[in-house]
Amino acid sequence: MADGQLWLDPGRARRGGADLTSAGEAVTARRAQVGSRLAAASAAHPWGRDDIGAAFEKQYRGFEETLLRAWAGVGRALENLGEGAVRSVDNEVTTDARNAGRLDRISDQRPAGR
Known about the structure:
Elements: H1 10-43, H2 51-108
Helix pairs in contact: 1-2
């Protein structure tokens, strides 16, 4: 922001949005790979099935589910944020072009000599 005006570099902003989308996709893919292995490993109850293992299971399972759900949510949020940023830039550029055209038409309608 300079002199109270906001300058938008559409190409740079679109690339930033695309990068956010790609980061979200990478987080989502990593969650699918590593998170699935984590869930599969814990499903085997490596801590045992005795009383201590059952107590651990009871506490652990909720944390695991929360972690995996949050991990997936972060990936989706990044993807949505990136897509939203690109959409916002496209809308801004379109609006700016339309408004510039309207202003040009207004100035074209002024009587000559004024």
